[in-house]
């Protein structure tokens, strides 16, 4: 073969493309997984904003373990089972969703992007999944409903000692088409979020010298902040203290199952209890009128050193029976995690940090990119597992969790990073 022929054959394998200017759209398209989106978010936002999303309680051991617990579960794929294009839809609380994935309630969402909850609601509507608006949202109950009138909207409630104020929120949500009420029960007091304390996070943000210069290094975020004004807690006015002080002054440490009975009388639609980790609590919640239980450790943002929800979901499923709806969050960063949660006993999962990374990285398109990644990964996992439907995932394809020894993984492994 002549040299000319070899050069011609080699050149046919090389496809050079002219360089293009980087854009938000191209950066999001280049993101292959949630880790890539997280890194993009880290580069585009000031540290105090990223730390608020990324961080957890105290030493953040629960944050880290939520992810390693997923890695400790192993699949046993079934073969020679035609799957084609798996059906990712799920039945949940009287409605069908296009994906078994929802967007969890997150406070102070407007710190990540000025469109905040409105952008998230529109992205959720585009993918046909539910979105829970937090009591501590930076867009009001009414504004989110107006921004995405066709979305499946849930409202997450922190029941305050002042029941009249809570009742006002409940009625506003009911009057604006929110189909489910999510009562969070793992916030008797505020968790010790040391990253936020060290950064002096408050609402409205009060920039110190170090945070001022850090913000200046992120002009895109700073310009959006200046153009839209400081985010605020849109559903009430008490927003001048530090975040931990605000939580401590707002929530009710005396909350009990008796209050659940009261809430059941006030809310005629679906009632979901979020923050359950013990089988007995799950059973009791259903006994007191809950329509679903949300198994969660608040993403590691409340009590540190808790069990991971993925490790207890099977036991809770056994306790409540096969037909009562169970939702799971905390630690989900991939479609493999979604498949593992569903195979272990959850009916549905929610993500929090994952979509906030997308919001920080690119607003509504960033949230949509996260949902697309999770959708693609879940579909691929189901195809490889031989599961044509969500129901098929529960056919003995998940083995008991392994004991994880992080020393066996390199220091730069995802399993040794607190990527939250």
From TrEMBL:
Domain of life from the UniProt record: Bacteria
User: Which Pfam family is one of those matched by this entry?
Assistant: FMN_dh
Q: Does the keyword Flavoprotein apply?
A: yes
Task: Describe the location of the FMN hydroxy acid dehydrogenase domain by residue ranges.
Answer: 26-403
For whether the record's keyword set contains NAD, the answer is: no
Needed cofactors, names only, are: FMN
**PROSITE patterns hit by this protein:** FMN_HYDROXY_ACID_DH_1 (PS00557), FMN_HYDROXY_ACID_DH_2 (PS51349)
Annotated family? Belongs to the FMN-dependent alpha-hydroxy acid dehydrogenase family.
Q: What is the designated name of this protein?
A: Alpha-hydroxy-acid oxidizing protein
User: What is the species listed in this Swiss-Prot or TrEMBL entry?
Assistant: Arthrobacter sulfonylureivorans
């Amino acid at each position: 073969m002549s040299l000319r022929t070899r050069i011609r054959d080699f050149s046919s394998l090389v496809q050079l493309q002219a360089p293009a200017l980087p854009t938000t759209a191209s950066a999001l398209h280049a993101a292959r997984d949630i880790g890539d989106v997280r890194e993009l978010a880290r580069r585009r936002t000031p540290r105090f904003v990223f730390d608020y999303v990324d961080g957890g309680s105290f030493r953040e051991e629960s944050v880290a373990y939520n992810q390693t617990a997923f890695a400790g579960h192993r699949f046993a794929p079934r073969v020679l089972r035609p799957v084609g294009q798996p059906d990712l839809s799920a039945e949940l609380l009287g409605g069908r969703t296009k994906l078994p994935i929802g967007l969890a309630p997150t406070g102070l969402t407007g710190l990540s992007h000025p469109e905040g909850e409105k952008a998230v609601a529109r992205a959720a509507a585009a993918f046909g999944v539910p979105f829970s608006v937090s009591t501590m949202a930076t867009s009001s109950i009414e504004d989110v409903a107006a921004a995405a009138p066709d979305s499946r909207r849930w409202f997450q409630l922190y029941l305050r000692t002042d029941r009249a104020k809570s009742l006002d929120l409940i009625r506003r949500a009911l009057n604006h088409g929110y189909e489910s009420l999510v009562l969070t029960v793992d916030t008797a007091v505020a968790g010790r979020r040391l990253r936020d304390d060290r950064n002096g996070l408050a609402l409205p943000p009060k920039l110190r010298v170090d945070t001022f210069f850090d913000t200046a290094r992120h002009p895109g975020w700073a310009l959006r902040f200046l153009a839209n004004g400081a985010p605020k807690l849109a559903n009430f006015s008490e927003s001048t203290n530090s975040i931990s002080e605000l939580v401590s002054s707002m929530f009710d440490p005396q909350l009990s199952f008796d209050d659940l009975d009261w809430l059941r009388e006030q809310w005629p639609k679906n009632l979901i209890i979020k923050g359950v980790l013990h089988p007995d609590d799950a059973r009791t919640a259903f006994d007191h009128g809950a329509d679903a239980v949300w198994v969660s450790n608040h993403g590691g943002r409340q009590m540190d050193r808790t069990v991971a929800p993925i490790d207890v979901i099977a036991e809770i499923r056994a306790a409540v029976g096969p037909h009562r709806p169970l939702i799971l969050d905390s630690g989900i960063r991939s479609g493999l995690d979604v498949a593992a949660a569903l195979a272990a006993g959850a009916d549905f999962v929610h993500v929090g940090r994952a979509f906030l990374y997308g919001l920080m990285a690119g607003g509504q398109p960033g949230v949509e990119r996260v949902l697309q990644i999770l959708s693609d990964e879940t579909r691929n996992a189901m195809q490889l597992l031989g599961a044509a439907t969500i129901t098929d995932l529960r056919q003995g394809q998940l083995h008991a969790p392994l004991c994880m020894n992080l020393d066996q993984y390199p220091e730069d492994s995802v399993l040794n990073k607190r990527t939250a």
